[in-house]
């Protein structure tokens, strides 16, 4: 019996739908087991500055109360590590994952404090250019092994290793997959097996295709699923649901994260939404998505994290959505990114991109930088550029929102 991708009705789906069993190996993240027939874990990430102990502690409390299986915290300096140590003393029980950002050298410092270390292959080239990628991966693996940590290889569309982008200039999905497969090979060679992989994009269809390709080649490796920079609810939830429904039903996905742009006090919604989507899939409750869902204005926004240097970022994303409602019928992409680490790269593919610093917002048109503006100035300049694009592509009648 063929398994339907999108059923004609909820009733029909509940009669014929079945989930493909997951075939990945089991790995340990502290006391949590993922992979195989283990329950799919639901996780989220602190959206605050790690060194702000009060705010980050509050984030941990919120995510714990929501029932997060794993809580991720980012570090980028030794001061961040010191803050992480104090947080771990305050919160000894949660399963913690740490994001190494661009500083792989911190691995031995953070490994004693957490249960999982996440590194991005696309960030390893930043430091110690005289060392090979393999040497850097071995450095991380040795630290994780010594302290019993798992590893996540986190491949991200906006920060793919430049070597892979050069090798696959016309296939961004294959660049991600080949990078992930190669890094799995490195850890295999180092006899490190407690690892999982994520392949994330802001386009749900690319997430589906990348994870399908990877799972076909490495069905043994546990996968963390997410649509990165999914954006504001409800659109961000819809994008995420599309990817999760397609992949989880195929037996792909051992942990998930719903990345939504939310105020800090509402970050627990990511856990609630994730569990709701998983429950719906298990029960055969799919949400039909029209084929032309993506044929309109698409606002990409990152979910915020400790890299964000100004909390106005979330409010700005909400203001961008309100401002651009008049342009909703146009198939354009606007990306609102909260930091300097992923912001520049992840706005390159958008028609218009904003990446936010401490006091100024950088406005881009594709890969071209238009200018840098204050948070009070940026919306006017964004609308000007948006109207110009609409006028050039669709005619001037509605360019000004008339």
Task: Walk me through what this model shows.
With 402 residues, this protein is of the alpha/beta class. The chain has two domains: 269 residues, Alpha-Beta Barrel (TIM Barrel); 101 residues, Sulfite Reductase Hemoprotein, domain 1 (2-Layer Sandwich), CATH 3.30.413.10. Helices cover 38% and strands 17% of the residues. The strands form three sheets. An eight-stranded parallel beta barrel has the order 3-4-5-6-7-8-9-10, surrounded by five helices. A five-stranded mixed sheet has the order 11-12-13-14-15. Strands 1-2 form a two-stranded antiparallel ribbon. Strand 8, helix 8 and strand 9 form a beta-alpha-beta unit. The radius of gyration is 21 Å and the shape is globular. The N terminus is likely disordered.
* Structural class label: alpha/beta
Radius of gyration: 21 Å
Uncertain runs with pLDDT below 50, 5 residues or more? Answer: 1-17
The largest β sheet comes out as: 8 strands, parallel, barrel
Q: What would you say the CATH architecture of the largest domain is?
A: Alpha-Beta Barrel
Give the % helix.
25-40%
Provide the domain count: 2
Q: CATH topology of the largest domain, which one?
A: TIM Barrel
Q: Class of the largest domain, according to the CATH hierarchy?
A: Alpha Beta
Coarse morphology: globular
Strand/helix succession: HEEEHEHEHEHEHHEHEHEHEHEHEEEH
User: Reading side by side through the largest sheet, how are the strands ordered?
Assistant: 3-4-5-6-7-8-9-10
Q: Count the beta strands.
A: 15
Q: Assess the beta-strand content as a share of residues.
A: 15-25%
- Per DSSP, the total helix count is 13
């Amino acid at each position: 019996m063929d398994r339907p991708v999108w059923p004609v009705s909820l009733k029909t789906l509940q009669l014929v739908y079945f989930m493909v069993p997951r075939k990945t190996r089991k790995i340990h993240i502290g006391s949590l087991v993922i992979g195989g027939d283990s329950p799919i874990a639901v996780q989220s990430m602190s959206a605050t500055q790690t060194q702000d102990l009060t705010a980050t502690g509050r984030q941990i409390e919120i995510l714990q109360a929501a029932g997060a299986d794993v809580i991720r915290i980012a570090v980028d300096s030794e001061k961040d590590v010191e803050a992480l140590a104090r947080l771990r003393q305050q919160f000894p029980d949660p399963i913690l994952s740490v994001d190494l950002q661009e500083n792989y050298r911190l691995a031995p410092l953070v490994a004693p404090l957490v249960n999982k270390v996440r590194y991005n292959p696309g960030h390893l080239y930043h430091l110690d250019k005289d060392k090979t990628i393999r040497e850097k991966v071995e450095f991380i693996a040795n630290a994780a092994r010594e302290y019993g940590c798992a590893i996540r290889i986190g491949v991200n569309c906006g920060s793919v290793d430049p070597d892979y982008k050069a090798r696959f200039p016309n296939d961004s999905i294959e660049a991600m997959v080949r990078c992930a497969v190669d890094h799995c090979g490195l850890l295999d060679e180092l006899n490190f097996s407690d690892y999982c992989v994520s392949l994330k994009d802001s386009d749900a269809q690319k997430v589906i295709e990348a994870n399908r390709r990877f799972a076909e080649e490495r069905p043994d490796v546990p996968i963390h699923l997410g649509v990165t920079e999914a954006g504001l609810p409800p659109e961000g939830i819809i994008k995420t649901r599309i990817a999760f429904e397609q992949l989880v039903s195929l037996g792909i996905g051992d942990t998930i994260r719903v990345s939504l742009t939310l105020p800090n006090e509402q970050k627990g919604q990511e856990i609630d939404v994730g569990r709701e989507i998983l429950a719906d899939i298990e029960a055969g409750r799919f949400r039909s998505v029209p084929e032309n869902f993506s044929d309109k204005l698409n606002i990409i926004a990152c979910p915020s994290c400790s890299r964000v240097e100004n909390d106005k970022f979330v409010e700005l994303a909400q203001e961008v959505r309100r401002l651009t409602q008049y342009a909703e019928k146009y198939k354009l992409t606007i990306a609102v990114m909260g930091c300097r680490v992923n912001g520049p790269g992840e706005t390159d593919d958008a028609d218009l991109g904003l990446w936010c610093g401490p006091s100024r917002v950088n406005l881009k048109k594709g890969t071209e930088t238009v200018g840098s503006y204050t948070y009070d100035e940026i919306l006017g300049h964004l609308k000007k550029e948006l109207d110009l694009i609409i006028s050039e592509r669709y005619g001037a009648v509605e360019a000004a929102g008339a």
